[in-house]
Specification:
Elements lengths: L1 H11 L5 H28 L21 H21 L6 H24 L4 H4 L1 E5 L2 E5 L7 H19 L21 H21 L9 H28 L9 H15 L8 H24 L13
Antiparallel strand pairs: 1-2
Helix pairs in contact: 1-2, 1-3, 1-7, 2-3, 2-4, 3-4, 3-6, 4-6, 7-8, 7-9, 8-9, 8-10, 9-10
Amino acid sequence: MDVGFGLIEAGSVRTKNTTHILVKNILDSFAAGIAYWLFGFALAFGKGNGFVGWTNWALAGLDDSKIAFAVYQIMFASTATTIVAGAVSERCEFIAYLIYSFILTGCIYPVVTHWGWAYDGWLFRGHTFYIDGQAVKVKYEDFGGSSMVHLVGGTSAFVATLFLGPRLGRFQKETGNVIYIKGHSVALCTIGIFVLLFGFMALNAGAQHHISHPGDASVISLAVFNTLVAASVGGFTSLFSHRFGLFGNSWSIHGVINGAFVSMVAICGGCNSMRPWSAAIVGFVASFLMKAFEYLLLKLRIDDPVNAVGSK
């Protein structure tokens, strides 16, 4: 996933910032490996209360059979962190970003995932309502991390862009009009979305956590297929909406990339249970919502070079 994000982000900025972007994405993975090993897993999945866990620091006392699960969660933590790299492109000090990366992967992301994915998390436990004498339990479900991963990353990106402000020359000082800053490589962005497509399918398949139980094959295949359907519909929807007057009057490769990307993010939460026609609707709606958020951010003079906030 970090490779796909890195390619899209590198292609969306000016040439002089390419190395800076790629280094940040590399270190995101390394920071996640260290911070999540030392603190993150304990806060996320250690025994505790409904808010946070506090056992298995540095994986101490963790059964070896759960190590693979910890590795999988490190990948999620790294993904949540690297989302911000694109949003703060061209205007964030390297040391500041590195500190943020450790904090998000070691503290913020683990606490949020404890709420929704740990057995004693307050969202995971849910709440029981009684309707006409019948007990109805309502609980939070997020199979592939639409909120647990991507909303955390998108919210962090939004806060970061607010604090940093726009890039120099992004908005006219007198009128506030948007000045388009062109990325240097469509090719990198295109390769990046293909890498992300396979990355999303792999992560959503892996969210089942096992492959030998009855019904696993059906769940995994449905999750992968729904991811592909949502990305395809979202990409086409964004493409034609740019061509036929809704968002412009020309074919847009960036429209295809962003539409497919936001659709994959949106489908993660329910990709294991939705029918393919539902995944198509999710992709269709998500592509329009992304564009609405993109326009809103520009109206508020918030600079997000890769639309990391709008796509989450």
